[in-house]
From TrEMBL:
Physiological role: Component of the pyruvate dehydrogenase (PDH) complex, that catalyzes the overall conversion of pyruvate to acetyl-CoA and CO(2).
Statement: the UniProt record of this protein carries the keyword Glycosyltransferase: no
Domain named Transketolase-like pyrimidine-binding: residues: 416-621
Alphabetized InterPro entries for the sequence: PDH/Transketolase, PDH_E1, PDH_E1_M, THDP-binding, Transketo_C/PFOR_II, Transketolase-like_Pyr-bd, Transketolase_N
Protein species of origin: Iodidimonas muriae
SUPFAM superfamilies according to UniProt: Thiamin diphosphate-binding fold (THDP-binding) (SSF52518), TK C-terminal domain-like (SSF52922)
Superkingdom of source: Bacteria
Source species taxonomy: Bacteria, Pseudomonadati, Pseudomonadota, Alphaproteobacteria, Iodidimonadales
Family, as annotated: Belongs to the transketolase family.
Protein name as catalogued: Pyruvate dehydrogenase E1 component
Names of the cofactor(s): Mg(2+); thiamine diphosphate
Length: 783
């Protein structure tokens, strides 16, 4: 193709993009209008939908999806541009009109793009601002990991693209991800900033774009600041144009927005007032009528399709690229530029005018090519049929699953801590030659050795795209750790930022769907610091990413470290978080079986992620022979360590590291309360989920099988008492009284901890043997 032919083809593409841009802008605005003004509002609650935020990014998304993107590219769409995304998917034939009509309603297109709730082609869920941006950098790292292992070819690689509002740059997790990317040597990542300079409550101060440029450049990004469209650039080349450019460059963002809202006459009056003493400027402005002048002043780069196409097509390297693209919030809408337009909605009269402007007849609002003649519509459909993004059909992959060995490692020892046993189990897996072990990827936010991943790393190595020598070994500095990095390694070492841990786990845990190769990610961190990355953990689970989270030490058991390193409410997080099964084993055989189950659960169609709450506290291990029923009970959430007699009056119920105190108290009380039981809870989360499902099924009517916890507690007398104890919030187990109507004395931690040893702290916070005995006595006396 000659240069002239290529230019002609590009010009024709821009013509089609212009038609599609207009259609996308209409459909996104109409979708929101229909949801708020035409669909019955039974509860009188505003539906919302961000018409202004959609309008500012419509041209950028139009250019990307209809011309630039390839099937291998993966995109995180700005949350507030969700209507634009759904409109584009509709035009591509990957979304149906009924979904659009039910936008933000049950079963319809979601308020923000969702991998699990939307039927159209969502790569990354967005909604919690900033997280959808940051995960693309970790997805790029995952892609490089697969490339290094030859599980992905260069031809299968794509760009990981995030589109964000400029207000999202206030989110700190973005900068944490940028720093990690700089350490890693990030590639094939585009971040596109919709720089409309307006957030929900404020207008961005002048000059922030230069600060953003500096931050991106400092972390090795190539920055492209696109400010002016071709019409403005042409005007700048005319006499008086330099003064106009200078005025715009120094115009405060809030003034530019206000003039945008006020319109053509306001532009002329202000420009003449500020620049009218120059004959060239006056002549320049006189060359535009009011409509043309307004069009000129709104000709920012983000609404110039030809400029956007040229810019995106011009990127041919694999460096990370940041595009700061100036736009108008609410572009093309009656409240464009208004400071309150973030949640603004066109009223019926404004929508009628907007409909007429777009040439849409009544009753044709949802038609894909409304207002176009048959020849143009046919040509446009032919163009859509050839859009590169649609070349290969479905973009979600299926991936092989890996068998979990029946003889799963279970380290012996009379006295062990679950955290230490976890490290041994993983180390033993690392010695095996299995597909399961080969596809495990571990990661940790700078606590690899202190969470007992060191043995695994020594076995399987650090991952690095370029070989990195272990200098300490070369220099003969004695260390038990081998920290050489190679492309064959299976551990990703992260900086100490928990948001990055959960974003990495989210990206790794979507590898099977994004890239067609299943990985089994396992991340470790200190249990209390789950809170520091909780939003990102929730985000990963919302996308149904699959991973194993090992959090340690639990509760007060890292006693000398004090309250800042002790966890209280994390069991409640595990209990409440969807798509995350939470377990807290006390003994090593429980842990081994739970990990074996976890690696299968991560791969199951109806499975999910797994959270293990472990401890550094060594405790005596029981001598027992386990069977299939015990194994199932462990996975189902609990079993009788000592079974009660039928109709018993008391049971002690424990979870996790307090097992020795619970067992000691049980032995002390069983002479006075013969027939009492000792219930080991391995997962209050699983027990509660099944019990809740039982209650829902009862309400629906019909046969309802008893939940596991009801079967367990059903051995007790109806008026029996339960003493529950856990190294965490007592509310975690106190709900057990509601299952069969038993009285409960809940023990746990509900205050910030302090430094000490476990014995002193358990006594101080009421978790020791004496506290359990006192609770048992009080509950028996209250009968």
């Amino acid at each position: 193709m000659t240069g002239q032919q290529r230019q002609s083809a590009d010009d024709q593409t821009v013509n089609y993009l212009t038609l599609l841009d207009k259609r996308v802008r209409w459909l996104s605005a109409w979708m929101v209008h229909h949801a708020n003004h035409l669909r019955p509002a039974r509860d009188k609650v505003k539906v919302g939908g961000h018409q202004a935020s959609s309008a500012s990014l419509a041209s950028v998304l139009t250019t990307l999806y209809f011309d630039i993107l390839r099937p291998e590219d993966r995109v995180a769409v700005k949350p507030h541009a969700s209507p634009v995304f759904h409109a584009i998917q509709y035009l591509l034939g990957q979304q149906d009109v009924e979904q659009l009509k039910r936008f933000r309603a049950l079963g319809g297109a979601q308020s923000y793009p969702s991998r699990t709730k939307d039927q159209d082609d969502v790569d990354f869920s967005t909604g919690s601002v900033g997280l959808g941006v940051a995960i693309t950098s970790f997805a790029s790292m995952v892609q490089d990991y697969l490339l290094a292992k030859s599980w992905l070819s260069e031809e299968q690689t794509g760009r990981m693209i995030a589109l964000m509002g400029d207000a999202e740059l206030d989110e700190g997790n973005i900068y944490e991800a940028m720093l990690e990317g700089a350490k890693y040597g990030l590639r094939n990542t585009w971040w596109i900033i919709d720089y409309n300079r307006q957030s929900l409550d404020a207008v961005t101060p002048l000059g922030m774009s230069r600060r953003y440029e500096a931050m991106f450049e400092a972390t090795d990004w190539t920055v492209h600041t696109l400010k002016f469209g071709k019409k403005l650039e042409a005007a700048f080349a005319k006499p008086g144009g330099a003064a106009l450019r200078d005025w715009i460059e120094n115009c405060p963002n809030d003034l530019y927005s206000a003039l945008t809202y006020k319109g053509a006459k306001a532009w002329r009056e202000r420009l003449l007032a500020d620049l009218g003493d120059g004959a060239d400027v006056a002549a320049l402005l006189a060359g535009y009528d009011d409509e043309a002048l307004e069009d000129l002043m709104l000709n920012l780069a983000g609404h110039d399709l030809a400029l956007l196409q040229e810019t995106f097509q011009g990127i041919t390297d694999d460096r990370p690229h940041c595009f700061i693209i100036y736009t108008i919030k609410g572009y093309g809408l009656p409240f464009k530029g208004h400071k309150d337009n973030h949640a603004g909605l066109m009223n019926p009269a404004q929508m009628a005018e907007f409909r007429a402007l777009n040439g849409i007849a009544d009753g044709e609002e949802w038609d894909r090519f409304a207002g176009l003649d048959e020849t143009t519509a046919t040509a446009l459909q032919a163009f859509l049929d050839e859009v590169p993004f649609k070349e290969s059909g479905p973009r979600r992959h299926q991936a092989a699953r890996f068998d979990v060995p029946a003889d799963f490692p279970c380290p012996g020892g009379a006295e062990q801590a679950t955290q230490v046993a976890f490290g041994k189990i993983l180390n033993d897996l690392g010695r095996t030659d299995s597909a399961l072990a080969d596809h495990i990827v571990t990661t940790s936010p700078d606590v690899t050795t202190s969470t007992n991943l060191g043995g695994w790393v020594n076995q399987r190595g650090l991952f690095n795209r370029e070989s990195r020598e272990d200098v300490f070994k070369r220099e003969a500095v004695v260390s038990p750790q081998r920290w050489a990095g190679t492309k064959n390694g299976q551990h990703l070492e992260l900086g100490i930022a928990e948001n990055n841990l959960f974003l990495a786990l989210g990206a790794l845990g979507l590898s099977h769907s994004l890239f067609g190769t299943r990985l089994l990610p396992l991340g470790t961190l200190y249990d209390p610091f789950i809170n520091r990355g909780l939003d990102a953990l929730n985000y990963a689970c919302y996308q149904d990413a699959r991973f194993m989270l090992v959090a340690t030490p639990s509760g007060l058991t890292l006693a000398p470290e004090g309250g800042a390193h002790q966890s209280i409410h994390t069991p409640l997080i595990g209990m409440a978080q969807p798509n995350l099964r939470s377990y807290e084993p006390a003994f090593v055989d429980e842990l081994s079986h739970i990990m074996r189950f976890g690696f299968s659960h991560m791969q199951a169609e109806d499975g999910g992620s797994v959270y293990l709450r472990l401890s550094t506290r060594p405790i005596a291990q029981p001598e027992r022979v386990t069977d299939a029923q015990w194994q199932q009970d462990v996975i189902d959430g609990g079993y009788w360590l000592v079974e009660p007699s039928p109709g018993a009056d008391l049971a002690i119920v424990y979870q996790g590291a307090v097992a020795p105190e619970a067992l000691a108290a049980f032995e002390a009380i069983r002479e006075d309360v013969p027939g009492a039981g000792l219930l080991a809870v391995t997962s209050l989360d699983v027990l509660h989920q099944e019990w809740s499902a039982e209650i829902r099924a009862q309400r629906a009517g019909g046969y309802v099988p008893k939940s596991h916890i009801r079967r367990l507690l059903g051995r007790l007398s109806p008026d029996a008492g339960l003493v529950t104890v856990m190294d965490g919030a007592p509310a975690g187990l106190s709900w057990l009284g509601a299952v069969c109507g038993h009285r409960v004395a809940p023990l746990g931690v509900d205050r910030f901890g302090q430094s000490g040893d476990v014995t002193d702290l358990y006594q101080t916070y009421g978790l020791d043997e004496d506290a359990i005995l006192d609770a048992a006595a009080s509950i028996l006396l209250a009968r």
